[in-house]
Every structure is written in C-alpha cells, then in structure tokens.
Amino acid sequence: MTADHYLVASDKVIPAWLQPVAILDLCAARGIDTHALLLNTALFASDLPFTGRYISLIQFQQLLANANRLWPGSDFPFQLGHQLLQHGLGPIRALVDSHSDLRPVLALLCDYSTLLAPALAMYIVSPAPNEILLMIRPSAFENTDGIALVSALTALANIIKCFKGVREPRYFFRASAGINRENFTAHLQGECYFDAPFDGLRILIDTTEKEAATQNLRAQVAVADCYALLPKARYLGECLRQLFASGDSGYRDLGGCAQQLGISQASLKRRLREHGLSFQQQLDHYQLELALIELLLKRASVDEAAARLNFHDSSNFRRAFKRWTGLSPSLMKTHFSSLMTPLPK
Hints:
The chain has two domains: 3-229, H-NOX domain (Alpha-Beta Complex), CATH 3.90.1520; 234-336, Arc Repressor Mutant, subunit A, CATH 1.10.10. Helix content is 49%, strand content 12%. The protein contains 17 helices and nine strands. Strand 6, helix 9 (181-188) and strand 7 (191-193) form a beta-alpha-beta unit. The radius of gyration is 20 Å and the shape is globular.
C-alpha cells in the first residue's frame, strides 16, 4: 500500500449518473429546482444525465445537503433510500436480483459500499452462523451527517425485503437528538434503538435458506459491473483501519502506518486533519469496535475482552474504554446488553 493507493474526499470517484441522478429525479418529482440542487456541486443541468462523469465525496455531500434543505418535509433521507433500490444503485440492483441468499449479498455490499453509500463504510460481524451484525461508520469524514446513514439503512431495509427467511431487522443509531422517531418506525419497519454504541443493523437468517454452491452467470456479471465502477482504492481512514486489522502490531502506531502508506508522519497527520480526523481517534474507533463485539456480542467478561484486545491488564482497558465512550465496560454491558439479546427464532 502506498500513497497512491488511498483516496481523499476531493478525489472524483462517485459515478454522477447513479445516486446523484436518483437524487435529482426524486427532487424533481417534488417540484424542486434542479439548478438550486446543483449549487456548489460542480455539476450542471446542461450536462445531464452525467453519463461517464464522476464527482468527489465533498461534492456528493453538498448535493445531499442541498436536497435535504430544499425538501418539503423531514423525510428526505428515507425517501432517497426507497428511491435508490429502484434507480440509483446501478449494478447493485442486478447483484441483489441474482442471489437467493442475503449473506453473500451483504458481504459484497461491504466491498462495494462506495456505490451503495459513498460517505460510509460497512463491516460484517457474524456472532452466530444464522446471525449478521452490519456495523456502519464514516468512510472519510469523521462528522458525516445522518442523511447518508439513514438513506443507506433505508436502502438496505428494502434490499433485505427481497430475500426469504430473513427476520425483521433491529436498527441501531448512535444519535438521538432531533430525530423524528415516527419516520424511522414508518420507513424501516423494524425495531430502532437510539443512543446506541454503534450505527448499523442486526438480522437473523433462516439457516435452511442457502445460496446455491455455484454462483450463477448473472451474479458474476453483476459483480464484474460493480467492480468496474468501484474506486480501486479506499479512503485514507479506511486504509488505516485495514492496517490496524492486519494483525501486525507495527501498524498500530503512526510511524508504522505512515511508512506503509509511503508518506511521512507529518504528511499523514496533515492529511488526516484535512478530513477532521486524527490517528489516535482512528485507532480508538477501531479498538472500540472490537471491544463492543467482545462485550456485547460475544458476552465476554471485562478481563476476557481486555486480554483479547491485547491490553496489559483490565485496569488499562477500563480506563481506555471510559475515554472512548464515557462509560465503564460494565456499565456499557448493563445499558446495552438488552439490545443485543438473542433475536427471536
């Protein structure tokens, strides 16, 4: 991995003829002026339908913000999520239609998350063979607004409905302030939990519903089409997470990661600052994810979680966890263990 193998938010990698056009169509149906929608996005109505054009994450975020501001109501992210499956995900729609099992589709969506939700990255954890936890976090900016998250989860909710043998999902949101909970109940049609320790969803899949052993040709074509549109690199924050997860302890410090990325420590710090990030913050987020999985999903004790995260002792782990979340590990287990109880069979 070198400096040429990661993205920054100004890189133009988002296909403008997919999600951006879906946003314009959705807003046009509500009578919203296209020129106002495209303000400060470097896109122009005269260039529609933007075939072959790409925009950056910064420009895409501006388009989302414009649409949400001009939308006549508070449900724009949900309506966009519904719209995307019908028009806006390109070959992802074919990917969904060509599989009978949700599990490989979710795994592929994590690989192609830039097409589903350009501002977000997704990771799968499987605490049991028939259970999937999909954790979602910003891909580039630390403070990605809730529009991208809600539209992505609404699109995922519609994708999940395409498959048999899947129980009603549970949705988790770190935020709660200013949220219209009726919108979540109406559009997601599943249990929604707010002030949760992570963003994402949890589902139970009937183990009798299995994908055929050999992937059909239609699925192979859909995967190839997705890959052709996918950026051949990840955003800088995601590259760091990949290094953290590599298992090499040398990639848990600034110097080791900078060397692997082929840049100086000062350059890495500067480029992270440009996205409102810091190295320690990214490492903390990664370790917190691991800690939550251990404590809430695997139901590990505090001592067990500390050992598995390679802390020298549980006291250091407790102090770090309190710094990450404001809660002790034991209090976190008490507050949120009910959210992670086994899903109904």
